[in-house]
Amino acid sequence: MIVTTTGSVEGRTIASYEGIVFGEVISGINFLKDLGAGMRNFFGGRSQGYEDEILQARENALDEMVNRAAQMGADAVVGVKMDYETLGADNGMIMVTCSGTAVKLN
């Protein structure tokens, strides 16, 4: 499945638009990752725990969107957009959403 942020696929023409597809993931950050991030915030540096969690959430959201497009019989998803939010009383959860248009290609 081709997934692109552009509105078209280079060298291919869109035969039909199948509809908008979404992928959503809400992921909790555990205590140890939160503790490690707090230490990094104090001393400086990157938080590998948070980065890994965001990477996994993004991949899962994209996989979910692609699966939904495949169920519609699509060959590609164009115009993909990603969004990230923190949720919860203590911002202990990450929400990753993606959306795009499922299309069939010639």
UniProtKB/TrEMBL annotation:
InterPro entries from the UniProt entry: UPF0145_dom_sf (IPR035439), UPF0145_YbjQ-like (IPR002765)
Gene3D superfamilies to which the protein is assigned, alphabetical: Hypothetical protein apc22750. Chain B (3.30.110.70)
One Pfam family it belongs to: YbjQ_1
NCBIfam families linked to this entry: PRK01119.1
Family of this protein: Belongs to the UPF0145 family.
Protein name: UPF0145 protein SAMN04488506_1449
Source organism of the structure: Desemzia incerta
